[in-house]
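Lab notebook page, bench 4
Experiment: in silico fold of construct C2
Operator: M.H.
Input chain length: 258 residues
Purpose: comparison with the prior construct
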Amino acid sequence: MSDKNSPLGDGSKKIRVGMVNYLNTKPLLYGLERKPISDRIELIGDYPSKVAQLLINDEIDLGLIPVAVLPSLSEYHIIGDYCIGTQGEIASVALFSEVPMNEIKKVYLDYQSRTSVALLKYLMKEYWGIDPEIVESLNEDYRSEIKGTTAGLVIGDRALEQRKISTFIFDLGSEWRAITGLPFVFAAWVSKKQLPDEFIQLFNEANAVGLQHIDEIVAENPFDLYDLKKYYNLHLSYKLDSNKLKGMELFLSGLKTA
């Protein structure tokens, strides 16, 4: 098997790991940047949909990717017991507007995450009962268009900034919980090929480390616009437990029938 296609895990080749450059990943990143796992991996950072594309193109071996991508993969393996999820309000994935929901005429979509876009479209059609004009944004400039009857889906750190600007905030995690009673998984660790069990165990242990160092992570990442301790402990839920898997399966089944 060629080096290009072989995440060996036997010391002869580092496993390429696609990581998302958001504040919400800092607790997972904490352990990955430290030994012993740091000697085994090469971290490659980008925004969620780009990390997904890197995995699709075999430019990485393992990535923290939007779960909405999973149905498009002919083979995939969810790696480990950690994810980017929420039990309810996520705070950093929301539809922002200056007017109430029923007055929204146009919605700009965030280009950075396929899962958030798919979830918003589902909520608008199946739950909110609104049918605004959809604009697929390709750059950062769209946030300046969130005014009047034009709303915008914003995710990640930029969503925490937008909370200080917009009048109405429709949190996608809260809305999903209200409909289904289940938590939501926005991104999971995914590979296209089976990875060695020994590596997966080591990787899983590294993911867990940062969750024991939240205060340290908050101190290392000053952020005046939002209380990161609250964000990590209340809004985000990192363990990929059975309820999150149920929520993810329900969401993915909805994508297949949409």
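Observations: Residues 1-6 have pLDDT under 50 and may be disordered. The domain at 3-86+183-257 is CATH 3.40.190.10 (D-Maltodextrin-Binding Protein; domain 2).
Next step: discuss at group meeting.
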